[in-house]
Amino acid sequence: QVQLVESGGGLVQAGESLLLSCVASGSRFSINAMGWYRQAPGKQRELVASKSNSGRDYYADSVKGRFTISRDNAKKMVYLQMNSLKPEDTANYLCYANVGPSGMDYWGKGTLVTVSS
Question: Pairing relation of β-strands 111-116 and 10-13?
Answer without folding.
Answer: parallel
